[in-house]
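PROTEIN–LIGAND DATA SHEET

This sheet pairs a single protein chain with one bound small molecule, zinc ion, given as SMILES. Inputs appear in the order they were entered. The predicted three-dimensional arrangement of chain and ligand is reported afterwards as a token string under its own label.
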Amino acid sequence: MSETEKTTMAEPTVESVQCHVCSGGVMRRTSIKIYNLNLGIVLILGGLLCVGTGILTFFGLIALLIGIYFLSAKKGVWLCDKCGAIVDRL
Ligand SMILES: [Zn+2]
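PREDICTION REPORTED AS:
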């Protein structure tokens, strides 16, 4: 008695935009990190090191905060399926 009931894939009516770079692809909504992840990680590690060793504690805390911000900051963009162009979304 295996009745596979296919739930209709709720396809959200995603607004799509035609790509103006390759003028053939369709751009989809997505979000990307604003800042370089490696930079954020380096800042966090450096901050932890400074705080942990007790040297430059204040600087370490600031570096930590900036690093966390770098890792969490995102922005919405349009991404083209075809050519990979990225356009800022307002
Ligand atoms: Zn494109």
